[in-house]
Fold this protein.
Amino acid sequence: MDRLSWYTPGESMEEILIQAGQVGIYDGDMKQSSFEQGTASLTLQRVIWADSSDPDCRLVLHHSLVDRIERHHKSMFGRGGKIIVTLKSAGAGHSPGPVASSGFNSLRFVFKQGGEEEFYKKYIDALNRQTWKRTSSSSSSGGSRTCTLYANPAGGPPSQRSLSGQLGQEKKFTEQNNRLNQTISQAFEDMSRLMEEAREMVNLSKSITERLRVNKEDMTEEETLNFKNNLLLLGVSDPVMKSAFGHTASYYDNLAKKVNDILLDTVETNGEMSLPEAYCKVNRSLVSELFSPEDLLNACQRFDDISAQLSLESLADGSFRVCLRNSPENASSDLVSSLTSP
């Protein structure tokens, strides 16, 4: 890692041969790194790495410091495909970088989202061409850390854009991220306002329920009107509230009617529905108050009392299903029961 240096602004224009996103740089065989996610850009002179989370962090590995490179495909437990770079010793005039001294003579580029195959081919070609030997000293790396580079994960053929031209692209993506953050913040603000309104609704419901419990039906018309208006705003026009009815036959009769209305279309389409499936569907529909599976079972057992189109049938294994009252399966079951009864 001590062969890496900081990117210098104002250097001569370079043509980007290929780019890859989600690339980490690791020293030797180390498992951890301070540079685990960024964009690697290959030119004829060097590899330039830009940190995805820190726009000021850009590193350079010059081709003159590369002895050889090897490609390793992603293993079953690996983080991604790798390019292992064996490094030469740095000269006396080597530009400073993030690491002053390292005990390793190699580093790894880890491609967490793939792309190492094409990057490796371009890298080999750039090393073989040895173009850096013919470039001016103005193309060498070192010094400051203010030039901007942005990812192009798709890679592809050599781009005609210069490194300095990446500024506009990074600015565009930054603006998009800012707009996205604003949208998310607005969504959470809307959710907070909705929760405040729901809290008012719950308080009103508790007030009316307590009055019903203490004074039976002795409640003001204004409270009743406010209660109904708030329910309508929430899309609940005729709720079945256990807090209002209690564990009474009236509650289960009303719940049975609701269950019949909610499940009828589905049962007519599919022929039947298991009780757990019915519980999930009814619970999603009756958003005003969640109820227990026992409540659903008691309500379904009231189908006969309210002359519902649906019927609850007990199966041999002890489970229950909801089916149409006049379905052929139900009729056959009734016939068998009548023939086998003493």
